[in-house]
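Q: What would this complex look like in 3D?
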Amino acid sequence: MSYSYKLSYLKQLEAESIYIMREAVAQFEKPVLLFSGGKDSIVMAHLARKAFWPAKLPFPMLHVDTGHNFPETIEFRDYLVNKIGARLIVRTVQDSIDQGLAEEEKGPNPSRNGLQTVTLLSAIEEFKFDVAFGGARRDEEKARAKERFFSHRDEFSQWDPKNQRPELWHLYNGRKNPGEHFRVFPLSNWTELDIWQYIAEEELELPSIYFSHQREIVNRQGVLLAKSEFITLLKGEQYEEKTIRFRTVGDMSCTGAVESPASNLEDIIAEVAAARVTERAARADDQRSEAAMEDRKKQGYF
Amino acid sequence: MEIKEQKREADLLRFITCGSVDDGKSTLIGRLLYDTKTIFEDQLQNIERTSQQRGEEYVNLALLTDGLRAEREQGITIDVAYRYFATPTRKFIMADTPGHIQYTRNMVTGASTANLAIVLVDARKGVIEQTCRHTFIASLLKIDHIILCVNKMDLVGFSEEVFNKIKADFETFISRLDIADVSYIPVSALQGDNIVNRSESMPWYEGPTLLYTLENVHLGSDLNLVDARFPVQYVSRPQTTEYHDFRGYAGRVEGGVFKPGDEVMVLPSGFTSKISAIETFDGPVAEAFPPMSVTITLNDEIDISRGDMIVKPNNQPQTSQDIELMICWMHEKPLVKGKKYIIRHTTREAKCLVKDIRYKMNINTLHKIEDDLNIGLNDIARIVIRSTVPLFFDDYRRNAATGSLILIDEFTNETLAAGIIL
Ligand SMILES: Nc1nc2c(ncn2[C@@H]2O[C@H](COP(=O)(O)OP(=O)(O)OP(=O)(O)O)[C@@H](O)[C@H]2O)c(=O)[nH]1
Ligand SMILES: [Mg+2]
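A: Here is my prediction, written as C-alpha cells for the whole assembly.
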C-alpha cells in the first residue's frame, strides 16, 4: 500500500460534508436546505448535488427573504436554482410582519435580520420540516465555534448551548421527540479560506458582489454600507464612490463592504489569506452586542 | 496481523486541550493563536474591551474560545470550542475542552476525533483526579500522543524541581496506560513561556516549545487501509429517465480499499457480488479508500439497505449480538442493568439490553472496582450488551469507525454513553 492513499485537505472536508448530508437525509423525513445566495450556501448546494448524484436533491431549498437583499443575490439565486433543477421555496419577512407575527424595528434603518428567525420558524412549521441544513461555519463566530454538526432544537426551536448532546466520533444522533427539529451544519469544519479555495477548485459561480466593483457607499461607524433604498443617511453622512467587494452576503441594511481591488478568485484567496479582520467584522448585526449571535441562535436563528 | 502504519505526509493535526478546571487550557489556546498571529484584529479588540470592562490585569486570552455568555460570566469552559489555524508546516483543528467534571461529556466529544491531547496541569496543584480522568479517556479513545504541559510555572518561580516532580508523578500514572508517545513541557500560558517562543525564565529546560512539538510530532495514519469496510448509508435510486435502473449504495469507506471488479460480500445477508463501478458526481473512480464518500454499484441485484455493510469475503469483521464494551457514561441518570437502550453503530441502529456490568474503573489507581457497580455520570466501566440484531464490528484499536458505538435513551432520545468495542 502506498503513499497515494491520501485525500487532499479540501477533498477530506468535502467527503465529511457529503457524509453529514447523507446521514441527515437518512435519519430525517423532511429535510430542507437553507439557501441565502451567499458563498457558503452555494458551496452547500454544490455539496448536496455531489452527495445525492445521480439523483436530484432530495429536499427543497428555502430562502428566507428579508426584502432587503442585494438584487444581484436574488438574480443569482434564481439562476442557480434553475441551473441545478432544484425546488425553491421563498418565504418573506414582509409576510410575517403583515400577519402580525413579527414587528419591524423602530429607528431610521430597521434591520430585519432578527426577524428572519420568525419567518424561518413559521416556514419550518408550515412544511413540517424536521431538519434544516445551515451553512454556518465554526470559524465564523465564537458562539458558532461551539455548535455541533447535528444541533438539536426543542419544541420552541430553541438552542440550549449549555446542554448540547455529546457528539462522538462521527456517530450522529438525530433522534427527537415530536415537535422538535434539528439544524445540521455540514460546513462546520470549513474556514473562510477553505471555502474560497474550494470555490476556485470546483470552479463554482458566484454572485457578482463578491468581486471588486465601483459602488456608492456610506461609512457608518466603520461599516461601509451600500447605497440603497434601505439606508437613510444620518446627519453628516454622505455617499462616496469606492472600489469595494463583499466578504459576506446578507441584508443591504447591515452587510458592510470591504475596500478591495480583488476581482478574481486568485486575488480574493490572497486577500482572505492575509486578512487581519474576520468576515463578520463588517456585519453591523454582529456588532450590536457581545453575545449578539448566541442570543439570536438561542431563539432559533440560522 | 499487524496493521501497517502508512507513511504519509502529515498535513492535518487534530488536537484537544484537556485537564482539570482552571489549569489554563483556554488561555493556552488563546496564547497559541495570539503568538502565531492568527487572531484577527476585531477579535482582539473585542476581548481587550471585555477584559478591561471586567477589570482584568491582562488581556484574557481564554475569551477567544470561551464564547458563550454563561462561560464568560462564570469564567469556565462549558462546551468544546473548535478553532482552526495553520503554520507553514501543518494545519491544525483544535478543540478546547472543559475541565469541569460536570462537563466531561463535552471533553469526550472533543477527544473522540483528536489525534493528540495536550494535558494541562497547574504547577501548584500537580497531577489530580481530573488530570487522570482525562488522560485515561484519551488513552481509551486511542489518542496516541500526549503532551503534558505543566502550566502556571510563573506562580512557582519557574522551578525545575516542581516540574520534575510533576513529570515523575505523571510518568508513574501513565506507565500503566497504553500511550505511544508522551512529552513534557513547562509553560506559562499567561505569559507565553514555551508556547510559541522559548522561555527566558526557564533556561534549564532544553526541549522544544509547544508549537514546535505540535508541528513535528510524527503522525502515522489513523486510517485503516487493510480491512475493507463500507457501511451503507443510503440507497440511491434516482428513477429519472437518464438513470432509470441505477441502484447505488452511498456511504463512506471506513476501512480498506475498494476497486471495480472486487469480489465483495454484503452483511448481514452474506450474498456475494462484484463491484461494477464506484461512482461520484465527478465521474467514476478507480479506487475508493478512507475517508472517501462514494456510491458503489454491484453486478447483481441484492437486497441491501441502510445499516448493511459491504466487505471482502476473505476479510470479514466480527459479527455478533453479544458485545464487550468500555463505556464513558455521560448522563445524570445511572446505567441500569437489564434495561433496553438504543445503539447506533456505523450506520446501523438497533436496540440492546445491558446484560452485565463487569467492573467500574477507579480513575486514580486504575484499579477495577467490582463491589460497587453503580454506573453514574462520568463513570468509566466495562459492560456486556446483547443487541437485537447482529453488529459487524472490529476491535476499536484496529478501526475506530467500526469499533465505536453510542447508547441512546429510548424515551428521551438523549445520548447517554460512548462505547468502545474491545
Ligand atoms: N499565573 C498564571 N495564570 C494562568 C496561567 N494560565 C492560565 N492562568 C489563569 O488561570 C485561570 C483559568 O484559566 P482558563 O484558561 O480559563 O482555564 P481552563 O483550563 O480553560 O478552565 P476550564 O476550561 O473551565 O476548565 C485564569 O484566570 C487564567 O488567567 C499561567 O500560565 N499563569
Ligand atoms: Mg477553558
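A: To summarize the key features: Chain A touches chain B through 58 residues (CB under 8 Å). Residues 121 and 300 of chain A are 7 Å apart (CA to CA).
Q: Very helpful, thank you.
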